[in-house]
Write a structure and sequence with these properties.
Number of domains: 2
Structural class: alpha+beta
Order of helices and strands: HHEEEHEEEEEEHEHEHEHEH
Number of strands: 13
CATH class of the largest domain: Alpha Beta
Number of helices: 8
Shape: globular
Strand content: 15-25%
Radius of gyration: 18 Å
CATH superfamily of the largest domain: Fructose-1,6-Bisphosphatase, subunit A, domain 1
CATH architecture of the largest domain: 2-Layer Sandwich
Strand order of the largest sheet: 2-1-3-4-5-6-7-8
């Protein structure tokens, strides 16, 4: 498959960050079980991975802007393009030694995501897509599932934790959806949830209160694999509102009506 220079740069940076995080991940089980010690360790691993990505991307494209979870915003000389990076999506999984987390990198052009990479180092699965070029996982072309009946479908979401205010809405979503489907998963990494929709592993996904870097890379992968991707509020904006719903075309309308409570 032919890939652009930008996608090659993104894949290289994601793999480099993945190697760094994988080395740190092997040390997690040796940490004392204390929130402070383990949390500090993961913060350092997260920041180090972002620095690796930042150095590689900004060296290759010094005029582009940047927004990263750990290092914030940098305005570029080119105001139309910026990198959007989450070096470790699934931090809680990482902290607990659970092998389900990812590196997410997206390229935004004139307010639209045009390229995305989501890399799962523990499984060596590299999901990537460019606008108009389809979606891929390693050497395989991705396509959303072809399931037509909700009762056969498995969905994914994020269940709010601690003091997040969207817990009641999500519990109401689950109460409406779960009697109609085959199951709902909460695996703790929005970027991988979107990539799994692209791969047909999930039939749909929705979540509220996401940050731009949580989903930017996964959005275009899902879209290029054939998923319908919309804001939860049809009049909203996914990247601004931090709310998204997506599914294969065959079930999207039924799924969206349930989640939107229409």
């Amino acid at each position: 498959m032919a890939m652009s220079a930008n996608i090659n740069i993104m894949i290289k940076a994601a793999r480099a960050a993945g190697r760094s995080l994988s080395k740190d991940f092997r040390e997690v089980e040796n940490l004392q079980v204390s929130m402070k010690g383990a949390g500090d360790f993961v913060s350092k691993a997260d920041f180090a991975a972002e620095e690796i990505i930042k150095e590689q991307l900004m060296d290759a494209r010094p005029t582009y802007g940047w927004v990263g979870e750990e290092t914030g915003n940098i305005d570029g000389q080119d105001p139309t393009r910026r990198w959007i990076v989450d070096p470790l999506d699934g931090t809680t999984n990482f902290l607990h030694g659970m092998p389900h987390w990812a590196v997410s990198i997206a390229l935004e052009h004139k307010g639209k995501i045009v390229s995305g990479v989501v890399y799962d180092p523990t499984k060596d699965e590299m999901f990537f897509a460019e606008k108009g070029q389809g979606a891929w996982m390693n050497e395989s072309r991705l396509r959303v599932s072809g399931r037509r009946r909700l009762i056969e479908c498995v969905f994914a979401t994020g269940i709010p934790f601690a003091t997040r205010g969207d817990l009641p809405a999500t519990l109401q979503d689950l109460a409406r959806l779960m009697p109609t489907c085959s199951g709902v998963r909460r695996w703790g990494s929005a970027s991988l949830d979107l990539a799994y929709v692209a791969a047909g592993r999930y039939d749909g996904f929705w979540e509220r209160a996401l940050k731009t870097w949580d989903m930017a890379g996964g959005l275009i992968i899902a879209q290029e694999a054939g998923a319908f991707v919309e804001p939860l509020n049809p009049e909203g904006d996914i990247l601004i509102d931090g709310e998204v719903i997506c599914a294969n075309e065959l079930i999207f309308e039924k799924f969206a009506k349930i989640i939107r409570n229409q």
